């Protein structure tokens, strides 16, 4: 019987993988449902087992299965791992994703599963924490804080019980690595959490998954059931979010698990000392925890050997938005932004020029192509006024209106603010209003009103406004900068504090969309 | 419904951290969390009514009114916008006969915004009665419309 592999990843299913799997099964094939390899331009993908390895065909539809099985389908890709997209990757965390049956304990063990946990349990908790420190692993959820230091704090903290909480509330648009890992290799996350539990002396853990990821919730629950005996004395459970973006912030997430409104807590105390139910708590992102089995199994040096500057190891980069070869690309830090967008991503899917990329989700900065030389590295991005965040890269072509994207950032913050602090709660609403004025003004320049700036708002709109308000575009952008400054420095958490990144980067790099003169370098770019 | 609540709590525990799981379970059972159930929920978990009301209204997922027979969640986030999401949102509202965030007058369809389904390279995306649909164009919209007409 021919063995074939078809992904059960939510993205593959959205593109028709279920119907494809049924058609193959009807043809008498043994169908193994895997996670996704992560190249969505070839999904739905089927891999046919042969003497030369797995031969991929994609994208294919149910009506293509006969041609696939007799080897004549034109979308024959050969061995999938030999494709250029995969040949350049360094897959530490995603090594098994797309290859194994995510819910097969035998498959997991056969692909080096549990080696990290075994190695950890042969060591003292302090030795495990030291290994994570030596690996240089920093929190992959966005903040980039050293994971080993966090674990050390929990290990040293008095009090019991202690908890391991996995932040699987990946709400950033343009990111899907957590989802893919949970759907494609759930035991890897479970193993990472069990290692963390051994390292700090925790007995129970929670995986807080956003409700927008129904496939990940089902897969994790099933995987926890299958592996429960393997991870004793550690126990695990899934908690499902309820559609609040701010619960991705670690203290809001803790409140949400506790059954409260997901509002941000002021720090200190650190969650490491007083976290879930007031007890010492490790709270890490999915990718941070999923990186740990490799570190324990292969050694901290093997992980630290890859990377750039103080950013060690690999980053699962997510190429998203208007990009030709979108998907998950895991590689060591240091690759340039331009290489990711153009060489690997293939530029915009629309075939038009790339105009902007947003890195790090809705709170990340927008960069123009003139900054594509930036190396993927926490410090380099911070210096350039941005952040790596969860390493999602959303590509926009030249049809994008950057003032509308800045408005959207403010609107998103207003919708999702937990309401606890004023700069975020009120500032975002005022920000939407300013952006509306700018968008309205840039189209209107009545004769005789040029002195009011490059745009004029119209008397009717502002008949009741105090005359002191400067309603010119210059005045409004100055107000916008002032507001962003308040939000950045006055907000309790990253939602209000980082919303200025997309807003100000859009204004700085694309001022012409805000009714201001275009920067000179835009002209140079067009010549190039 | 009060019996559902007491049975659920007897089985899963009466601690405060069970509030979200209980609300999810209720919503799955009934389709929404009716305001009349708030006192029973509060009593069963030893919380105040204000506490329970505050939680229900904080989270976008919990409904206080029934949804339409079919629920179409359309992604409004940046990655889908980069792939023509805004135009598709307008087209969807027109084709389905319901505005974003509302339930159609005949109770057939609710059209709701969602901020990211994690399918960001193949947008614009939707969740139609819980099933993911990618690369929504006019043809896909037509298929969705006929599916939710039933």
UniProtKB/TrEMBL annotation, chain A:
Keywords: 4Fe-4S, Iron, Iron-sulfur, Metal-binding
Superkingdom assignment: Bacteria
Cofactor(s) of this protein: FMN
Entry GO MF terms: 4 iron, 4 sulfur cluster binding; FMN binding; metal ion binding; NADH dehydrogenase (ubiquinone) activity
Domain (NADH-ubiquinone oxidoreductase 51kDa subunit iron-sulphur binding): residue spans on this chain: 403-449
Transmembrane helix among keywords: no
A Pfam entry, by short name: Complex1_51K
InterPro entries: NADH-UbQ_OxRdtase_51kDa_CS, Nuo51_FMN-bd, Nuo51_FMN-bd_sf, Nuop51_4Fe4S-bd, Nuop51_4Fe4S-bd_sf, Thioredoxin-like_sf
Family: Belongs to the complex I 51 kDa subunit family.
Protein name as catalogued: Formate dehydrogenase
UniProtKB/TrEMBL annotation, chain B:
Keyword field contains Iron-sulfur: yes
Record key words, sorted: 2Fe-2S, Iron, Iron-sulfur, Metal-binding
InterPro entries to which the protein is assigned, alphabetical: NADP_DH_HndA-like, NuoE-like, NuoE_N, Thioredoxin-like_sf
Cofactor binding, per record: Binds 1 [2Fe-2S] cluster.
Coiled-coil ranges per UniProt: none
Manganese keyword on record: no
Cofactor (UniProt): [2Fe-2S] cluster
GO MF term set: 2 iron, 2 sulfur cluster binding; metal ion binding; oxidoreductase activity
Gene3D superfamilies named in the record: Glutaredoxin (3.40.30.10), NADH-quinone oxidoreductase subunit E (1.10.10.1590)
Residues the entry annotates as binding [2Fe-2S] cluster: 75, 80, 116, 120
Family: Belongs to the complex I 24 kDa subunit family.
Protein name as catalogued: Formate dehydrogenase subunit gamma
